[in-house]
Amino acid sequence: MNWVELLLYLFAVAVFPGFVFLSLLGTFTEWIERKVAARAQNRMGPTYVGPMGLLQPIADILKLLWAKELVISRGFSWRVTLFLVSTGVMALSASTLLMPISPIRLSTPLDSLVLVYVLFYSTLGFLAIGFSSPSPFGVVGSSRMLSIVCVVEPAAAISIYAISAALTGMGTASVSEAMTAQVGLQQSPALVLGGVSLFLVMMAKSLLKPFDIPEAETEVAGGVVADVGGPLLGMFRILHDMEAAFLALLLTLLVLRGPYPFSYADPLGWVLIGVKFVLVVLAATTLSASLGRLRIEQGVALLGKHSLLASIAALGAAALNYYVVA
Asked: Where are the alpha helices (DSSP H) in the chain?
């Protein structure tokens, strides 16, 4: 590796499409969520900071990071928590190297499994916040999240592998190559089933209704973040927004085929990527604004029935196409 490639890797991870870009995209995703929720509840939502309140999520995070002091309860392991949350942020930033929008892209057989492994770091960051807290609300919130994680993570892993395998082969299963592969009628069942599963995974991991069970304000006072404030809460917000944006972008590029029918070299393709991304976020937030919170057992059952089973069906469709049809 020469110094030019090294600089490209650093730029991709730190700026585009890594930390800076993903952070800004995450705050934009949060803005859409807050605007849609406010519209559904006959409120204004973000209004004053920036045009149409577009910069309000950024202002909120900056206030937490620099204007608020770190106030923690006795016994709270904030250093360990901050390390895990920061690791989750870095893992999401590095994962963007697998995407075709990156100026320098990583691609290797079975990199879909690498992506699943790296994405789990963000989940560890969320769980650490609640379990490190001496507050019973934080522990209950993380316990609820752990119950959901036991269903969501296998569904995400199987869906990503199934779609990648359907488009690039069972032995290759490269998510990076799958984002630019041609899709035929034979691969469509795995793509549709895996897409449905990933959409529910995105909603659950983004803590959108009806899956906002771990941070239910009226039940457990915020749950995982009940005992968190200041810079640590700001880091939680950054991690949460980045993960929501990353999953929506993954759906856009992997399931909705990114710039198709244009190419990544066509400016219209990049416009279409933006339109598809906004549509994915709007669909999730509109659905969230129209639903109420489920009980923990209802949420787990719904995810198991409609996300995990759909991902298993997608894997079966991919295997059938690879070993029988092809």
From this structure: 3-14, 19-40, 56-62, 78-95, 111-131, 136-168, 175-178, 188-205, 217-220, 230-250, 267-289, 296-303, 309-320
Domains of the chain: total: 1
Helix (H) / strand (E) containing 67: none
Q: How confident is the model at residue 125 (pLDDT cuts 50, 70, 90)?
A: confident
Residue 163: pLDDT above 70? yes
Amino acid at residue number 182: Q
Q: Say if residues 118 and 94 touch (Cβ distance below 8 Å).
A: yes
- Write down the pLDDT at residue 178: 96
3-class DSSP assignment, residue 206: coil
pTM higher than 0.90: yes
> Shortest CA distance to 277 belongs to which of 18, 28, 17?
28
Q: Which of 126, 125, 159 minimizes the C-alpha distance to 310?
A: 159
Average pLDDT over residues 244-272: 95
Give the domain range for residue 259: 3-325
**Neighbour-count burial of 59, counting CB atoms closer than 10 A to its CB (0-12 exposed, 13-18 middle, 19+ buried):** middle
Q: Which two tokens stand for residue 64?
A: 């937490």
Rounded CA-CA distance 313/19 in Å is: 34
Comparing 21-35, 91-105, 118-132, 223-237, which segment has the lowest mean pLDDT?
Answer: 223-237
Counting beta carbons within 10 angstroms of the beta carbon of residue 44, is it exposed (0 to 12), middle (13 to 18) or buried (19 or more)? exposed
278-310 CB burial, b ≥16 within 10 A, e <16: eebbeebbbebbeeebbebeebbebbeeebbeb
Model confidence pLDDT, tens digit, residues 22-75: 999 999 999 999 999 999 888 888 988 999 999 999 999 999 998 777 767 676
